[in-house]
Structures are given as C-alpha cells and as structure tokens.
Design a protein that fits this description.
CATH architecture: 2-Layer Sandwich
Number of helices: 2
Structural class: alpha+beta
Largest sheet: 5 strands, mixed
Number of strands: 5
Shape: globular
Strand order of the largest sheet: 4-1-3-2-5
Oligomer: single chain
CATH class: Alpha Beta
Radius of gyration: 13 Å
C-alpha cells in the first residue's frame, strides 16, 4: 500500500552512507528492498565513494528501509549512516530506481 501524499502520511528522507558501500551490489539490493516495501525514490553512488538514497513512503516504511540500509547487504560495511527528513515539498515519485553516479 502506498501512502497518499494528500493524507499527510507520506514522508521523504535523504540518506548518505559511507564505508564499503560501492562495488558490493548495494544499489541493486537497495532497489529490490525498496520495491518490496512499496516505497519510491532513488539510490545513486557519489564520486566521493558514498551512496545516497532518497526514499518516500509512510513513517513505518521509511523506518524499516532505514534500518535495512545499515545492515541489509552482507558484503557492505556501513561506517556511517546519516538520514535527514526533507521538510520542503518534494514531488511524489512513481517508483524506486537506480540513478547514475554524481
């Protein structure tokens, strides 16, 4: 079930992960997990070696996804996970996808 942006249950969060998070299948696993949870957004590598994830969904969905980000890929080593709520209005995305590195 996708939260409706009009009922106030939809939230957006931006996460940055640092550690051994590139070259270990993290983005593909992230896409699968987000789609399984029914949330939307994107994941991308950053040129500094980190991974950035933007997620949209209900508070419960996002809490589950953020917990997964820390431990979801056995081959990854997450040294730090920073998650920020996006306060300004964010357009509702239709799916969760992998974006190119920036």
């Amino acid at each position: 079930m996708r939260p409706d942006e009009n009922d106030g249950s939809m939230e957006s969060r931006l996460a940055r992960l640092r550690g051994i998070v590139q070259g270990v299948g993290f983005r593909e696993a992230c896409v699968r997990q987000a789609r399984a949870l029914g949330i939307t957004g994107w994941v991308r590598n950053r040129s500094d070696g980190s991974v950035e994830v933007m997620v949209q969904g209900s508070p419960e969905q996002l809490a589950e996804m953020c917990a997964w980000l820390r431990n979801g890929v056995p081959s990854a080593v997450v040294d730090s996970l920073e998650v920020n709520s996006l306060r300004s209005p964010v357009d509702r995305l239709d799916q969760f996808e992998r974006l190119p590195t920036v």
